[in-house]
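Here we describe the complex-level prediction in full. Unlike the single-chain runs in Section 2.1, the two entities below were treated as one system.
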Amino acid sequence: MLFPRRDLDDVISDLAGGRLLPGDVTSHQVRGPHPPRYGAFPEDLAPSLREALAKRGIERPYLHQEAAIRAVRGGEHVVLTTPTASGKTLCYNVPIIDRILAEPETRALYVFPTKALAQDQYHGVKRLIDAAGGGGTIGTYTFDGDTPGDARRAVRDFGHIVITNPDMLHSGVLPQHTKWLKLFENLRYVVIDELHNYRGIFGSHVAGLLRRLRRVCRFHGSDPQFITCSATIKNPVELARTLVGVDFTHVAESGAPSGEHHIVTYNPPVVNKSLGIRAGAVTSAYQVARSLIEAGTSTIVFAGSRLHVEIILKYLREALVRANLSPDLVQGYRGGYLPLHRRRIEAGLRAGTIRGVVTTNALEAGIDIGSLDAAVICGFPGSIASFWQQSGRAGRRAGKSLTVLVASSASVDQYLVQHPDVLLGASPEQARIDPKNLFVMVDHAKCAAFELPFEPDEAFSVLTPPETKEVLEYLESHGVVNESAGRFHWMERVFPAHHVSLRGISEQNFAVIDVARDKVIAEVDFRSTHTTLHQHAIYHVDSFQYQVERLDYENHKAFVRKVDPDYYTTAMTYTRVAVLDEERSDRRGLVRLAHGEVLVTTKFVGFKKIRFHTNETIGYGDIHLPDLEMHTTSFWLEVDRELVLAMPFDRQTFVDALQAISHALETSAAIALMCAERDLGRALGEDAADGPGAGGAGARAFDPTIYLYDAVPGGVGLAPEIHKGFPAILARALELLGDCACGTGCPSCVGPMPRYDGVVRRAALHLGRALTAELERAQAPPPQIAPTGVFA
Amino acid sequence: MNLTARLTRTLGSGPAATPRAAEPEPALASVSLGHASPPAPRLADALARLDRARAKVAAFALAEVGGGPPRPFEDAVPGALEDTEAGPLWVAEERLGPGERHGSRAVGALRERSTDALHRLVGDERLRGFRAEDALFLDIEATGLDHGAGTLAFVVGLAYYEGETLVVRQLVLREPGEERALLLELKRALDRFPCLVSFNGKSYDTTVLENRLVMQRLYSPRETALKLRPHLDLLHLSRALYGGLWEDTRLQTLEREVLGVHREDDIPGHLVPSCWFTWLRHKSPDPIAGVVRHNRDDVLTMVTLADRLLAESALDGVSDLSPPLALNLARLLGRRGSPTDAARVLRGLPLSEMPPRLQLRALRESAICARRVGDHAWRREALSALVSRSPSDALAWEELALVLERERRLGEALVAARRAQHLLPTDAIARRLARLERRAAAS
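The structure predicted for the assembly as a whole is:
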């Protein structure tokens, strides 16, 4: 070792004692260790399976494993919510393998959110089956996009346990269900792991997918039992029920032991006192990670965006090179990497030839990459469930481990790092999905019609029979289905599943091509393209920088060339909201609250060049890309002109104050609803193009409306909840504005402003109090519904 | 909630109520960004562009399939309605006497053809003693090239012999609801004839039909598993025998080249699905009539192609075959474990009259065949002739060295090995060379 040998204990005590980095350690919590609590296997468990378990050192199950095995054997649908590394897979593998040993016709389908996880699980199940002597008779296969064509037949005919992902189930299994006769006729178990992943638009899609799965099963005469596992969320049972459409039994209390886990929340130092600006989370996270890796601690760094991953990776590798070490000791890992690249990194982690990994949430789910000692979380990951998932990557096995949350300057981060009890003590958030999302519903109705014709009076998913008929008649008017004797048949030559992406992005990915080597180096989803692959953008792969020379928008290709710039680029966007339909509104004095359907248009106005390390803006450029439009749901707040005129400040200050309040509302709503800030978007009403000035001389009319909208097409139901809980959300927003330590307004409390001289902050607070007064003045206040999430 | 109103507002309204010939394909076929009617100028523009583009494609396809006015099915499509236990089914039946011709061949000729070598040529023991009377010729027209559960076979063309008469029986759907009757009718034919003959049916037609049988709950591994039946797939045999002779081995190419069939106004295969959708959407049956004609031609071509293939692979007529075809046959026989027959074909080739490239192929094939039948002298002769015509063929030199060494003609073997080593040095040749030099020195 070239570094002076320190160990994890030293790093923890230095960090907690403030000796490692300047800035504030706002909390240091130690959890565990917890001793194990054991139960017993059922008496009549297959002896070979019992021996196989014993050979792997499992003589007795933990309490929760016993409970789960009993529930599965009792025919119940089960949700498991015990912590990471508590042995959840055993809970379903044991009863399922036991059943297959007794009744070899039995089939099971395992669904994992990603291919990588499915691969990982495959090895685990296979080892257990082989040890139980079922290697020759029980077929276990993964089935995904990488499965070669000639192997697929074997999987279909001989797979007792088929391990796949939702996307493959959607486009490769269900549309071909007639070829999977053996599976569907005998399907007894469906395992859905990482259930908490299926929230938002992805979850809404998976709900549609699972209804299709059950529909196909019914056709083939099977009615499988669902066994699901989730990280800790507030509503696992409700989520499972909404996803699958059946009632679940909950197994929650863990009997598994855990090691001593230190959790430190860290706020980077204030670097500009007057503006309250703090050192960047990215730089601070890099410094924490570097200390940990130097101390020989295997470390994983989670960053919120690809860009941050690449920057931290670049800094860490530069540090390794300065220390005469191989830069390959630290690797990046993210969704955009090609499969082989990812497999290599996973293998390196397992083998220990890689000591640090920087990743987005691609590694958040439980891939078994061996024990990591420390997790550095750069910025609050947007949900408490994610925070604990990421934290759980460190210290899966017994022994000491560390999680460091490095707060960013985002207001949610600042709120949570200054109120660590909220983060560490709260019940985690609710996972929301909306299976009734029209986009999702129509997509899956189409896929379902391809799979099986709709029978007269059939009810699809959460729709009633008449609603189903309405959807089908709508599809018929588009020539997508054809009615014949009351049954609706698919009648397009295209394969509908190929045009429906479960991940909510129905557009095709863009390929990033290195012109020097004429090779595809990454794939980027459609929406990210607009901000990361516009012409002249600096695109990061594996800590190397590429400049986009040309974006072939039609053919979904970006041509890039490797460069060595001293800056990176970020796109600037401008968003406008148009109301399509108001679903509900109520007037409170001089304000009106409403929610409904909207069209959100995002324009891409240009990009900034930002220098590495110093973060100063060194230039601007144009983006020539079409606007993106999204149909979704929104909450909005309209302020009457009378109230505008009553404010003791000018038009521009009013707009700035409204802007500041919308920024605080976004944060407060995200905390109250416990969704990621990126799940919400905000915008102000647009200046009307004409109309007489309403205020100061010469000023144009404007529309004092704040929109908070659901940031996924069709929405997942956030808008009505903001509407319901608005008074509390506004109160929390004013608290954020008022309590901020800056005193003059800063990016964290009032959001991006041209200047921070205290005027906007005072105006925003004044306006906010006026709004509160209006809400309270209302004659019939709506029932005060406690906001869900951490403040419940 | 008024769902229909929300659907229309959110996802756009459907096509106009009265469809015109150039109806745009629905924009919904591939769901993209959500699109709203009122204030969405840009998206509306994009969608309008898309609709125009699709309309062009659709109009083009319709012009090609010849949309035609809406009229009753029976006015356009040949055939008649038959009553089956599962309801009415449209059937076009035609009976052809043995002397009637399709292109240059009589449709009854297949019955007289010897099929002794067939099972060996296709490598399927179940086709031993294949009789034309047991065969069910099968060709489908479907709504897509995908094998998915939603792909429908709307024309099932069958042909079989009743005595010396060839019966062509085409089962045609007028609507998806008649599928059960169609499949039951297919099942009756399957019960009568144990053996399938198709063109590419092993991968396409049987897959689609098995899917349909599963969907109608008529599938059983014993009775209707098409994939498990003895099956003569003419595509595979055609590829083996006719590969390299013409531009490709598609059915239409083969019928033109080997059967002298020339179709007029034929519907290209890729437009077949459009014909079905045109019928369903616009009640214009003329395209369906076109598909039925197309299918009839395909079926008759299969019958006569099978005859021609059997004629050309019968070993008694080998001397009449053109050299490239004879070479293909020999190659196939060799691969299928009949090297003696392959040797007979190869030895009968008029080598000196053949063009040089074909000579090389024939000599290579002969060397391989000679090794299989263990005729060392023939093998040496073939290899010697090969290297004299193609002196840079390192592999031939190497093999020749091996043969010569085995025959103890060490001096010649040494020369051949040196040539091989010179042309393409490998460790194996180097070892052989060293050994030969040792042996040559010792003797």
